[in-house]
Write a structure and sequence with these properties.
The protein has a 6-stranded mixed β-sheet. It has a 5-stranded mixed β-sheet with strand order 7-6-8-5-9. The chain is built from 9 helices and 11 strands. Helix 1 links the parallel strand 1 and strand 2. The structure holds ligand ISJ. Pathway: Quinol/quinone metabolism; menaquinone biosynthesis.
């Protein structure tokens, strides 16, 4: 490509290991990098405002053309910690659930689990801004990202969606992955993957750069989020996408 590749990344702590290696990396000579929350960058990729983004996999069915271009993702093969249903009452006493406006994948995953795994009779409520304060009584809330790590200190009942998915399917889960809306040069993709790998190979440096008293980031980056896009994760992703077609 003649011009720079426009890339949008998730602005949460979970993406810091992937972005750590971009500073001063060769790939930045041909990259224009911006950050936003997942639902917003999903819209940017669908509308063609960017060429590639770390987008929620739930938007794949809405793309005319898509290429999964990277070896890395925001995935989990156990509790993810930052995508949870938060409540003051146990699961089966919940009556209404606030949905996270910043999410696409987790909202869809929650609906799959509610209908097929937990089999709950609940009402879903869309949100547009801060709603965490409304998680009270039998009103629960789905919260993702850094705000979920904060909500962990507040809500007595926490249902981890990646853990529930594993119980349901015995497969790992992929929340987001690098997807382009057009083919990109092979050399660019190689540089891009290399830049992604640097932080993952230097996690103590990434943690040192992002002081965060709310949650142990070493735990988050090594035991909760699982970054390699493995064959098992692709299988989990295909299973999840098959539910979205139903
Ligand atoms: C694990 C997470 O995965 C995120 C969840 C997303 C979604 O629900 O659409 C999208 C991108 C990921 O950053 C998280 O943000 O906590």
């Amino acid at each position: 490509m003649e011009r720079k590749v426009k890339v949008a990344a998730v602005s949460y702590l979970n993406t810091k290991p992937l972005l750590y290696g971009f500073k001063g990396h060769e790939v930045m000579k041909s990259t224009e990098l911006t950050m936003d929350y997942p639902a917003s960058i999903a819209r940017q990729l669908i509308d063609g405002e960017v060429d590639m983004a770390l987008v929620p996999v739930a938007i794949i069915p809405r793309m005319k053309e898509y290429h999964i271009i990277s070896d890395y993702c925001i995935g989990a093969d156990g509790p993810v910690a930052s995508v949870c249903l938060f409540s003051e009452v146990p699961l089966h006493d919940i009556k209404r659930i606030y949905l996270d406006y910043q999410s696409r994948t987790s909202v869809a995953l929650l609906k799959v689990l509610v209908a097929n795994h937990w089999k709950l009779d609940v009402e879903f409520i869309e949100t547009t801004g801060g709603y965490e304060g409304l998680i009270k009584g039998t009103d629960a809330g789905l919260v993702i990202g850094d705000r979920a790590l904060e909500q962990r200190l507040i809500s007595p009942f926490i249902y981890d969606l990646a853990e529930a998915w594993m119980h349901f399917t015995s497969l790992p889960f992929v929340f987001a992955t690098w997807i382009s809306n057009k083919p990109l040069p092979v050399e660019y993709i190689q540089q891009f993957n290399n830049a992604n790998s640097i932080g993952l190979n230097n996690l103590p440096a990434v943690v040192a750069e992002n002081r965060y008293p709310t949650y142990d980031l070493t735990l988050y980056y090594t035991k909760n989020i699982s970054y390699p896009l493995t064959p098992a994760k692709r299988q989990g992703m295909q299973r999840f996408l098959s539910y979205l077609h139903k």
